[in-house]
Amino acid sequence: MDILFSPEARELAEKKAVFWNAVREFHIKNGFLEVETPVLEVTTGGADAKPFITHHHALDMDVYLRISAGELWQKRLMVAGLRKTFEIGRIFRNEGMSAEHLQDYTQCEAYWAYADYEDMYKFLRDCYKYAAKKTFGTLQFKINGFDVDLGKKWPLLDYTAEIKKQTGLDIWTASDKEMEQKLEKLQVEYDARNRARLMDALWKYCRKNIGGPVIVINEPKITSPLSKTSPKNPNITERFHFIIGGSELGQGYSELNDPIDQKERFEAQEKLRKLGDESAQMTDDEFIEALEYGMPPTAGHGFSERLFSFLMDKPVRETQLFPLMKPKE
Questions:
Q1: Degrees, nearest 5: CA angle 200-314-134
Q2: What ranges make up the beta strands (E) of 167-311?
C-alpha cells in the first residue's frame, strides 16, 4: 500500500533497480561472467556470521542458508579455469538487526584470477563511482552527517595504526585484558571469547569516526581466515575495507590459495566454534581439495545493499520493499 500511495517509495524501488543494473553492467563491461551458486549448503563459508539452518527432507539432512554470495563456490570456478566471475544474489545471516544490518539482503561478490587486492580495490572503487553516478547523477553525498565525495582521492589507511591513533592502544603488544579494559573505558560492547573479536570491537569503534571514502589495509591475519598473508609481514593480510560514512561498505582481498595454510586456518576457526563462537567459519574439506588441484593467484570483493542505503542516507530497512516484520497477533 505504501508504494501505491507514496511516489517516494516507487522512486526508491526504481533507483535500487538502476543501482544493481549499473553494478551488473560495470562487471560485465570489465569481462566478468555472471554465475549462480547454491543457496543451500552443507557447510557455511565466506564470512564470519551465524547461519540459518533448515532441513532438506529429500536427503534427510540439515543444511544452511548461505552467508556469502558463493565465495567458496566461485573460487572453485577459478580452479576450473574461469578467470572473472561475479554473482548478485540473496544471502542470509541469523544475527541482530540495526540501521545497517538485516538478516536477508542482496550482496555482490566477484573473483578475478591473476589479480591481487590492489587490483581489486581499484576496480571496486571505480565500480562504486560508476553505480553512484548512474543512479544518482552525482558523486557527492551526505551520509550519517559526513560530507562524502566519491570523486576525490581515496587514501590508504593502516588498520592497526588507526586503532592506535584513536585509542592509544597497540594491538600487537596489548594483552587481551588491556583490550578489554580499553573497550570498557570506551563503553563499547564486546565479545571476550577470543582475541580476534576484541580487535574487531576496537576497530568498529574507530571506523564510526571516519567519513571517508578511505581504503583500510593491513588487517591482522587473526581476523582474516580466507585472506592471503602479506609477503612483507606474516602477521597481516592483503585485505582491504572501504569505509564510507563511518561504516564498512565493502571489502576484498588477495585470496588464500595455499591448501595447507587454508586447512590450518579452518582448524583454528573450528576451535573457536567449539568454544562457543557461532560466527566462526566451518571447515570445508571439498574446498581444500579444490585448492590442492591449484587455484591461481586470485582477488575477490564483496559488498551489500548497505551501500545503496548509505547513498540514500537511510537505514537499510527503509530501502527494502518488503523487510521482514513480526506478524500481527
A1: 100
A2: 214-217, 239-244, 247-254, 298-304
CA distance 279 to 95: 9
**Residue tagged 584470477 (cell numbers):** 113
Q: Which helix (H) or strand (E) element contains residue 89?
A: strand 84-92
Q: Rounded to whole angstroms, what are the CA distances from 234 to 134, 218, 231, 318?
A: 41, 11, 7, 42
The CA radius of gyration of the chain, in Å to the nearest whole number, is 20
Separation of alpha carbons 173 and 67, rounded Å? 33
Which domains can be identified in the chain, with CATH numbers? Answer: 2-154+212-319 (3.30.930.10)
Give the DSSP letter of residue 183. H
Helix or strand (DSSP H, E) at 17: helix 7-29
Confidence grade of residue 24 (pLDDT, cut at 50, 70, 90):
very high
How far apart (Å, rounded) are the C-alpha atoms in residues 26 and 10?
25
> How large is the average pLDDT for residues 214-236?
90
* Cell of residue 202, nine digits: 576496537
Q: What is the pLDDT of residues 95-154, one digit of tens each?
A: 877 778 888 999 999 999 999 999 999 999 999 999 999 999 999 999 999 999 999 999
Phi, psi of 111, deg, nearest 5 = -135, 140
Residues 172 and 143: their CA atoms lie apart, in Å, by 32
| Cα(145)–Cα(177) distance, integer angstroms | 34
Long-range contacts of 175-180 (CB under 8 A, 24+ apart): none
pTM given for the model: 0.89
